[in-house]
């Protein structure tokens, strides 16, 4: 109830600001909470729908819970979420997390993973994770991802990325970040294309093959 009262106050204040400046352009999302409890999620969702928001976020996931529990929450919640507004899963995630969530009806995501992991020596590629700090890459002159057209993969090798990291050179994490962000943009593009083509399940199966544990 406290969260819903806060949501009502937030909606009221947002509308006041919007009326004063109609061209502000922002959208207000209500956040569905409730942890792993379906009845609490349902109550939160119903209350937020009664208030009315531009979009609806799913909060309280991607906080260390087992993957199966997160999927169970989404399986129960997403069929009841409005389809006319964006549905946003907060704090997710890996390529596989995103693909699995889209298949369950999620539209939007935010996450630090591609940049944080880039700074810590992990690249997402068409062939899976590449931890370029590993000694096996010290003489590897191949591109980080042979199927990637990003600036990093077009100009630099795994050996060079490892060298930069070993030297503590800031260019290393910058190049890794460029690649990971490009990979995520391409991932989302491919997801959208597979939805249009009606092949989303096959696409997600392919991501599972690459990134499944």
Order of helices and strands: HEHEHEHEHEEHHHH
Helix content: 40-55%
Rg for CA atoms: 20 Å
How many domains, in number, for the residues?
Answer: 2
Oligomer: single chain
Instruction: Using the 3D structure, state the CATH architecture of the largest domain.
Output: 3-Layer(aba) Sandwich
Beta-strand content: 5-15%
CATH top level class name of the largest domain: Alpha Beta
CATH topology category name of the largest domain: Rossmann fold
**How many distinct beta strands?**
6
- State the end-to-end distance: 39 Å
Q: Give the biggest sheet.
A: 4 strands, parallel
Q: What is the number of helices?
A: 9
Strand order of the largest sheet: 1-2-3-4
Secondary-structure-based class equals: alpha/beta
Q: Which regions have little confidence, pLDDT < 50, spanning 5+ residues?
A: none
Mean pLDDT level = 96
Shape: elongated
What does this structure look like?
- This protein has 213 residues and is an alpha/beta fold.
- The chain folds into 2 domains: 2-111, Rossmann fold; 112-213, no CATH class.
- 54% of the residues lie in helices and 11% in strands.
- The protein is built from 9 helices and 6 strands, in the order H-E-H-E-H-E-H-E-H-E-E-H-H-H-H.
- It has helices at residues 2-20, 38-51, 67-77, 95-103, 113-119, 151-155, 158-167, 171-197, 200-211; strands at residues 29-32, 55-58, 87-90, 108-110, 122-125, 128-131.
- The strands form 2 sheets. A 4-stranded parallel beta sheet has the order 1-2-3-4, with helices on one face. Strands 5-6 form a two-stranded antiparallel ribbon.
- Helix 5 (113-119) packs antiparallel against helix 8 (171-197) and helix 7 (158-167) packs across helix 8 (171-197).
- The longest helix has 27 residues, at 171-197.
- The mean pLDDT is 96.
């Amino acid at each position: 109830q406290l969260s819903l009262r806060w949501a009502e106050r937030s909606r009221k204040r947002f509308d006041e600001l919007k009326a004063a400046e109609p061209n502000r352009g922002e959208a207000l999302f209500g956040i569905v909470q409730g942890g792993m409890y379906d009845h609490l999620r349902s109550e939160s969702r119903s209350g937020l729908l009664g208030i009315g928001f531009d979009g609806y976020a799913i909060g309280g996931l991607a906080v260390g819970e087992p993957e199966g529990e997160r999927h169970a929450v989404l399986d129960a919640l997403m069929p009841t979420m409005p389809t006319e507004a964006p549905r946003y899963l907060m704090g997710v995630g890996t390529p596989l997390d995103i693909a699995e969530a889209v298949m369950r009806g999620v539209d939007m995501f935010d996450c630090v993973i591609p940049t944080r992991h880039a700074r810590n020596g992990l690249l997402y590629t068409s062939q899976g994770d590449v931890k370029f700090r590993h000694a096996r890459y010290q003489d590897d002159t191949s591109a980080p991802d042979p199927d990637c057209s990003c600036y990093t993969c077009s100009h630099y090798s795994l050996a060079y990325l490892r060298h930069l990291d070993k030297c503590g050179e800031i260019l290393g994490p910058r190049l890794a970040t460029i690649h990971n962000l490009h990979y995520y943009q391409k991932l989302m593009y491919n997801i959208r294309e597979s939805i249009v083509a009606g092949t989303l399940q096959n696409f997600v199966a392919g991501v599972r093959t690459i990134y499944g544990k």
